[in-house]
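Incident log, support desk, overnight shift.

02:14 A customer reports that sequence design results differ from what the structure should imply. Their input is reproduced verbatim below. On-call engineer (initials T.W.) acknowledged and began investigating.
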């Protein structure tokens, strides 16, 4: 039976660089006047009395907007218009004509008188006896007056037509006059609307200008006293710092093995490991080994920091990042320490 012996030695070196962090904060003393002025300046903006006056003027103008237009001549226009549009066409009826009836009565009387005179004259010529001649002559005299009456009809027609036309023209003139008065009222209304619009625009612009100017004063005062506050605070600075030392460790392991051939022989091996560490954190003391507990502070030892990296790498990324970020926001770790964790964890 032949045996073969072999020896394997493995050496692992681990080192962590040391570092330091610092945090600077304003620690200057702020005067009581500055604190008081700043507190007043940081209050919510409140419009000044001048701005309120401009706003009230604007509201009064808006509330006095002219209403819808109405005319006192509208009813009159409607009435005249209806009379013009519904007027009957011209017709001449002598029996309904009052002047014709007057002339008819007059001519009838005159005709009768002429007929009697003619018949009387004819009777005198015949010795006082009536005759057909006297009757015929009298009737003729009466008819002459009736014919003269009828000869007046063309003039009566013309007069009636002229009256009808004049009446129409009068209605047209009345409508035109009423329309002129309507237009005058409407123009006055439009003038009042234009005046209102001009007032509205003026007071609206005045309010905006006053408010912008007033708010600008408020903003400038707020910024001035806020800057003054921080100038006094930053007049003195306080710095807090922390650091950690370099650590290193070396681990060596040796494995001896033998192999035999033939029979039912097997193999056997023996290993030996040793470790050596340096630095201030050692390997045997209580130098910050915290197991599975996170120690996210600037004062954490190197071992604790390495343990933090290990724990965080095993957690969900979002949860791990939130814990580190929360420690930084609360001032427990510095910016450089925050960057270290992000680099080690590949974030």
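02:41 Re-run completed on a clean worker. Output:
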């Amino acid at each position: 039976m032949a045996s073969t012996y072999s020896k394997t030695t493995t050496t692992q070196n681990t080192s962590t660089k040391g570092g330091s962090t610092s945090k600077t904060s304003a620690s200057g003393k702020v005067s009581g006047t500055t604190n008081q002025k700043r507190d007043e300046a940081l209050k919510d903006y409140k419009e000044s009395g001048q701005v309120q006056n401009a706003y009230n003027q604007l509201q009064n103008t808006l509330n006095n907007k002219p209403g819808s237009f109405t005319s006192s001549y509208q009813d009159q226009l409607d009435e005249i218009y209806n009379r013009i549009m519904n007027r009957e066409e011209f017709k001449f009826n002598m029996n309904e004509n009052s002047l014709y009836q007057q002339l008819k009565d007059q001519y009838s009387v005159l005709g009768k008188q002429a007929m009697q005179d003619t018949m009387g004259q004819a009777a005198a010529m015949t010795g006082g006896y009536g005759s057909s001649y006297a009757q015929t002559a009298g009737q003729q005299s009466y008819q002459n007056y009736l014919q003269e009456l009828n000869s007046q009809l063309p003039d009566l027609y013309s007069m009636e037509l002229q009256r009808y036309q004049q009446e129409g023209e009068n209605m047209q003139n009345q409508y035109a006059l009423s329309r002129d008065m309507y237009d005058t009222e409407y123009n006055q209304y439009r003038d009042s609307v234009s005046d209102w619009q001009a007032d509205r625009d003026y007071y609206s612009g005045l309010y905006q200008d006053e408010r912008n100017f007033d708010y600008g004063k408020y903003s400038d005062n707020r910024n001035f006293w806020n800057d003054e506050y921080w100038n006094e605070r930053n007049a003195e600075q306080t710095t807090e710092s922390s650091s950690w030392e370099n650590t290193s460790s070396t681990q060596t392991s040796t494995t001896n093995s033998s192999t035999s051939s033939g029979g039912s022989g097997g193999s056997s091996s023996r290993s030996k490991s040793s470790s050596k560490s340096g630095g201030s954190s050692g390997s045997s003391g209580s130098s910050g080994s915290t197991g599975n507990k996170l120690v996210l502070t600037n004062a954490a030892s190197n071992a604790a920091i390495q343990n933090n990296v290990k724990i965080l790498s095993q957690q969900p990324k979002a949860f791990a990042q939130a814990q580190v970020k929360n420690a930084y926001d609360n001032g427990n770790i510095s910016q450089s320490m925050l960057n270290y964790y992000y680099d080690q964890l590949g974030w």
